[in-house]
Each structure stands twice: as structure tokens, then as C-alpha cells.
Design a protein that fits this description.
CATH topology of chain A: Glutaconate Coenzyme A-transferase
CATH class of chain A: Alpha Beta
Number of domains of chain B: 1
InterPro entries (chain A): CoA_trans_fam_I, NagB/RpiA_transferase-like
CATH class of chain B: Alpha Beta
Distance between the termini of chain A: 22 Å
Distance between the termini of chain B: 37 Å
CATH architecture of chain A: 3-Layer(aba) Sandwich
Strand content of chain B: 15-25%
CATH architecture of chain B: 3-Layer(aba) Sandwich
Oligomer: heterodimer
Strand content of chain A: 15-25%
Number of helices of chain B: 12
Number of domains of chain A: 1
Keywords (chain A): Transferase
Family (chain A): Belongs to the 3-oxoacid CoA-transferase subunit B family.
Protein name (chain A): CoA-transferase subunit beta
Shape of chain B: globular
CATH topology of chain B: Glutaconate Coenzyme A-transferase
Structural class of chain B: alpha/beta
Shape of chain A: globular
Largest interface: A-B, 49 and 51 residues
Helix content of chain B: 25-40%
GO molecular function (chain A): CoA-transferase activity
Number of strands of chain B: 12
Chain lengths: ~260, ~325
Amino acid sequence: MTTKTKQAFSLNELMCVIASRQLHNKEIVFAGYGLPLVATYLAQCTHAPELVFITETGNVRSTPPFSLPRAVDDLTLSANSDMATGLPEVTAMLVRGEINVGFLGGAQIDRFGNLNSTVIGSYKNPRVRLMGSGGANDIATFAQRTIIILDQTRPGRFVERVDYNTSPGYLTGPGEREKAGFPENTGPSCVVTNKGVYKFDDHSKEMYLASYHPGVTIEEIKELVSWDLKIAEDVHETPMPTEEELELLRVKIDPNRFYI
Amino acid sequence: MIEESERGVRMSKIYSMEDAIKKYVNDGDMIYLGGWQGSVPYAAAHEIIRQNKRNLKLIAGASCEVGDHLVAAGCVNEAYISWIGNDATKGSHAIRRAWQEGIPQKLEIYDFNNMAIISMLLGGYYNLPFVPLKGMVGSDMIENNSIVRFTTDPFSNEDNKQIPVVPGIQPDVAILHVQRSDLHGNSHRWGVLSFDHLAGMAAKKVIITCEELVSSDLIRSDPNRTMIPGIKVAAVVHEPWGAHPAHMPGYYEADWDYRLNISGEASRKLETHESYLEEWVYGVKDRKEYLEHYVDRFGYSQLEKLRLKDPILSPSVNYGWR
């Protein structure tokens, strides 16, 4: 490992680096574009050269794309891919439990990692209609583990209970996924935001703060969370990106600073 | 199903877009519009809007911006979707207006996951009454969706185990934009296929819109590339730039400036979205006029800029038989 950097870095760079370190070599990852793709690409360039990623629209890739895609269905994702196919084929691998890691996002998340990307307010009388599940429900249900990336700048995103559960996390607590018939030992593994990193307690399945980003206080984070957030005993500042990681991100992966 | 008289493998099925939509898309039809963010039959969708087709039922995994346009124009009253909105702006303003306020028409949305859309089309593909569903359990999608039902799993060791099922669905018409087709509708597609290969085969009939009209010999030189055979196709429309502002693999890239600043930006408000449709859909007669209008506004070089310039060609394969 290279030494810790003294350089300044953006929060998006930090989030990509944290997510990238969650991925292991030889894993199969469901990722499309944006920060999840940058994180996956970074992992392929560093510790996980044999990682394969699959896009929702139907590309299977054991190599990074020639350029960064702007959307999940982007020409650059098909060019030089191992396979270009459709949704039915890649979704099949997902529901069969063959995908190690999936990325998720959403407008709201709750204590047990359930995500809402359908509607704010009640379904019958909503305040805001959002886009819906897409592949998120499939990923949340069937990926062996999920990494959730969220913007936590505004309050109202970390709520006691999501207004609408689009993509189940641990539902209402331990054992509930199994009771609902989900594959065993699946579920969200961590939540990466622009404030900190959260993990889920092995027993209670409740989300807790694992680390806070440089310049962010625990008090500030607690104010953005609407339940009494538990804090890890060993809570610490999020480890910084290395110079190598930053250089890869800036020079090789996203030179036009589209995402970072 | 397409009547034998219309199926003809030797007859030409070439139509103008106007005639194809007039003849094969009816009010109240369930339609599948192909593509995702690329290979999207925008030209066909705009013609549907011009002809003021009503009460269409839209089935799609990702009904991206093209769904936004159809909903904004009041053509759709039911959507069977896993995702609906404007993918460029990441907004769903037109959907909100229709779903929440009934403007310009009340929209009923049935929310599914991707697997459910695949399962319904797979059911339609094999003409099955229903298909067991994977996922959606535990989410709030099931109780808010009257299409999903429960039945006993007859193979489970558990007594009376209830599993969710969805019906097999055969869209009345699937409209698919492809790179090239012959005049019978045998059509080649490459790049990602979205749900198009499944939906096209599940549909009762298919309208193919294509960038290039080619000889049957060319199609038959690479039959594995054929996504839909002509026997499923009712009409073929030769429509270059038919997927603009989406991208078309092998032909042009996505017009992000247009999708963000023109159509996407306009979708945020009712008045601006109406003016967008007025200018780019109602205000032009067909795709040719749409392109002329584009060139008038942004210059020919802007359109030319979208054309792919660095081909990556695949060597051909040997189909020899002796």
C-alpha cells in the first residue's frame, strides 16, 4: 500500500474509494454508472483485477470500459464487453444468487437499511412520485450483499421507517428476510454517504455509524438521522484515499471529472 | 397474431411511419416501446402522439424519456413498469402531473421490479397463464399492485405455501428500433437488447423501425444477429435517426445536450413540456421535418457531431455448411 495522502480530495472521491475497498477480487458485481461504476473500475485497477461487473441493461465485463459511461445504457459499456445481451439474461444471474455485490441508492433509507425510490408520503396520496424500483428491488432481494451509496446532505433521508419500501434491507429486524423467503445471509453490508460510513449490527441488523469523514462531526451526523443512531465503539475518522487511488481516479478513470 | 395474409415472407411490409402507426396501433392497445436509454423508437412514439392515440397501456422495464413524452401528451392511461420518469434529468415531473393530478390524463401505475416485467413477458412469450414471481415480496410493491396474486406452490414440501404470481402478457404491439431490417421485417440488432428480444417475441405483432433498409441476403449472411424474424412483423418503417435523442449502436451517440437542456429541462413544468411537444412533435409532420427543425435550430454540424466516427468492427463468422 502506498502511504496516506496529504492531498486534498473531494467527498465523491472519498466515497468511490471506500466503496471500491468493499469489493473483492473475483467477485461478480452489479454496477451501472455513476459512483458505483467508478468504485468498481477503481477496484479492477487496484486490488481486484479479476472482478467482473454486470450492467442492468445486459453487459458482462471483465475489463473496464474505454471511457466512463454517462448512463447505465451507454455505448461504451457494450464495446469490448465479454457479452452484450439483455435484461432477462443478467436478471437471471441475479435471481439465481450468482451476483456477489449489488449497488443501491434511494431517496430514503431507514434503520434496517430498507430503501425507498417510489414515493414520498403515502402511496395513495403522495407528496412526490419518484421513478420506482427498476432493478433495485431485484438487487436488494437477491444479491449476496449490497452496498448503498447515498447523498446525506439534506435531512429527511435517514428516517425511522421509509414511507414506502421499494428495496428491502433487513425489513423490521433480524430473521425477517429469511421469514419472507429471501436467500440466506443476504442484505445490505454498508452505507456510504458524503458524511460517513455505516454498517449493520450482526445481531440486531440495525444500522450504526462506523466512521465519519474528515471534517464531519458525529453530532452533525446524528442530526441528519431521525432515529437514535448507534455509534460503533471503535468509531473513527474514515481512512483517507491513498495517493495511488487518487491518481488512478483523476488520471485514468475519470480525467474529465464527470463523477468525482 | 399476424394474419397469414399479412405475414408473407416475400411481400414488402414497408410503411411510412404515419401509416404504420395508423394501421397497427389502436386506442386502448397494450404497447411495448423498445430500447432503454439507447435504441429507443422516439420517432414512432412521436407519431403516436401526433395521431392522438388514447388510453394506451404501456409495458416497460425502464420507461425512460419516451414514456415521459407519451404520458405528457395524454396517450397513456396505464403503465406496467419497474421504472418511469425522465432518465436524463432524473426527474419524473410529467409522471407526477399525470399520476398525482390527472394532468393531462389520469395515469394508473402498476409498480413492479424488473423480474416481474420479465416474468409477464416470458409468460406471454410461451403463452402461459401465469408465472411465479421472484422478488417484490417484503416490499410495499405487492400490496399496492392488484396485478400480483398469490397461489399455492404445488411442489413445495410446506403445506399450502403461498407464492406470488403474475399473468403472462402479450402486448398488442411491440415497437422496436433496430439497426437494419429487410423489407419483410427480418431485423438485426446489436448492442444491449434491453427487453426487446423477449417483448418482440411475446407481442402479438411487431412494428420495426430501422436505421437502414437492407437486402435479405445481408440479413441472411448473419442470421444469429436477427433479433426478430419477419413472420412476427406487421410493418417496417425506414427511419434514419429514429432513436434520436437516444443513441443507436453503430450509428450515433446520445444527444445529451438535447436530452438535458431541451427535452429534459422542458419536462419540469407543464407549460414548458407542452411547448416542447408543440415545437418538436406536433409542430413537425414526421421525423424528416424533426431533423430539419433540429438543423435549423442547432446547425447541421451539431447533428453530424453525434454520428459515431471510430468504428470497432467485428470480423464476420463462418456459416459454411460443407
